[in-house]
Amino acid sequence: MTNLSSELVNNLRLIARLDIKGENLIKSIQLEGLRVIGQPNEYALKYYLQGADELIYMDCVASLYGRNHLSDIISTATKNIFVPITVGGGIRSVDDAFKILRAGADKVAINTAAVANPQLIEDISRQFGSQCMVLSVEAKKINDNKWEVYTDNGREKTGMDVVDWVKKGIDLGAGEILLTSVDKEGTRKGFDTSLIKSVSEQSMVPVIASGGMGSPDDILEAVNEGGASAVAMADILHYGRSDIKEIRDTAKKAGFGVREYAIE
Amino acid sequence: MPLNEIVIIDYGVGNLLSVKRGLEHCGAKVLVTSKPEEILNAAKVILPGVGAFKKAMKALDNLGLVKVIQEVANRKINLLGICLGMQLLLDESDEFGLTKGLGLIPGRVVAIPTKNDDGMINKIPHIGWSKLINSEGISYWNEGILKTLGRSDSSYFIHSYMALTNNNKYTIAYCLYGSKKIPAVIQRDRIIGCQFHPEKSGEVGLKILRDFCES
User: Which of B119, B160, B176 sits opposite A10 (nearest CB)?
Assistant: First the structure.
């Protein structure tokens, strides 16, 4: 049994996640069957004005084609969005990270390239600080207590155990874990709480729970039982099933500390 | 160069673009530079920074900027250090071995405690939005860069080390992480440091930047 950190109650972060293909905001189900939602920065600005604590942009086909279109989108976004921005997808080297940080990103999220070359985690955290190096982990369930690491946006198996990989990533300098459940992603069936719990119990760094949020109440289990420090939300926001304000109010009522924010 | 220009010191670390855009959003004219003469001619100077203390001091030293920043303080030019830039204002840091800082505000940089008074664990880095709390008996709040802030306003922190001043009077605001007090804003005369990122703290952060520009 783990001690639930008081930090969880202090600083729950509500993060809007924008999955990008080319120039479009898209949404998938279990990381497949992409549907176009619209222009990413229109949604990003809306979420910023609603009071999102952070934004995550994820280029979901970059690993496949070896490129990243996000620099222009990020550079435009940071003209009128003043909250932290994490960018993932197709970042393969310290130089790639440097370029996207120069475009205005605050952190990089790396999955496929880190699995292929774990040294990259150390190189990026040494160069830019571990607060900048988010290890993105796509986890697929094997049984009740075991999850396998997937890469290339949930397409490729690695044979690696999720908890072991997270521990190794933290040792190498990752400052945060973005944990996406491939099974739950886009299903609206709630987070994979046992996955979040297994990882956050073993993680000295904050864990962002991603994948499956169906209603504002789903965050309660992810935080209380899972021990998540932050939740990433996509489908629930993009389709307007809820908004950041309602989700924040739900979190506040549950006794979590959230950012106080007056909507003007 | 017009005197209302704000200089951001470029020493190869940090997300300078965001600081620049935040200031421009507030109507400031901004110059990003590492040239000593431009820094010393500024109306106000910002020292940004993310990453490791030792590496940052080395970068400043290599560019000959340690003495320049100390001269900025001597000339009473308003100076704002952000995040690591705040920590650099102190005498020294424990991060990766003892390293000397700029020595502009007495104090030292130490790791954030991982355990709270109740034994519960604080995950490190401290990442997230925390409320700024006015240190008792400190009046800078009312006249300085926090003057237009509401009492429950939060700002965005991301750090593993914290800047402890030797004298409480230099710590004008703090935040709570678990049960631990973390210095959020430090000030000595015209030298100010913010542990949080005003340029990433939404409308609250922009208010702080605006008040710095107009100070």
Answer: B176
ipTM, two decimals, is 0.91
Res. A1: pLDDT tops 70: no
Asked whether the beta carbons of residue B202 and residue A261 sit closer than 8 angstroms, the reply is yes
pLDDT at residue number B19? 93
Q: Is the peptide bond before B125 cis (omega within 30 degrees of 0)?
A: yes
Separation of alpha carbons B23 and B18, rounded Å? 9
Range of the structural domain that residue A26 is part of: 5-253
Which residues does residue B192 pair with via DSSP β-bridges, in sequence order? B80, B187
Total of domains in chain A: 1
pLDDT digits (tens, 9 = 90+) for B45-77: 999 988 889 989 999 999 999 999 999 999 999
Nearest chain B residue (CA) to A128? B51
| Residue B133 touches partner A, C-beta closer than 8 Å | no
Establish if B201 touches chain A: CB-CB under 8 angstroms: yes
**Contact yes or no for A176 and B127 at CB 8 A:** yes
Whether A141 maps to a domain, the answer reads yes
Domain containing residue A166: CATH number:
3.20.20.70
Cβ separation of B159 and A259 shorter than 8 Å? no
- How far apart CA B42 and CA A138 sit, in angstroms, is 48
Catalytic residues of B: 83, 197, 199
CATH number of the domain at B85, please.
Answer: 3.40.50.880
Kindly state whether residue A262 falls inside one of the protein's structural domains: no
Each residue's pLDDT tens digit, B191-208: 999 999 999 999 999 999
List, for residues B98-144, the tens digit of each pLDDT value: 999 999 999 999 999 988 888 888 899 999 999 999 888 776 667 78
Q: Which residues of B touch A101 (CB under 8 A)?
A: 15
Q: At what angle do helices A119-128 and A94-102 cross, to 10 degrees?
A: 40
Q: Is B202 on the interface with A (CB under 8 A)?
A: yes
Instruction: Write out residues 62-81 of B within 8 Å (CB-CB) of A.
Output: none
**CA B30 to each of CA A19, A196, B21, B188: distance values in angstroms, whole numbers, following the listed order:** 33, 44, 9, 24
**Does residue A259 sit within a domain?**
no
Domain that holds residue B192: 5-214
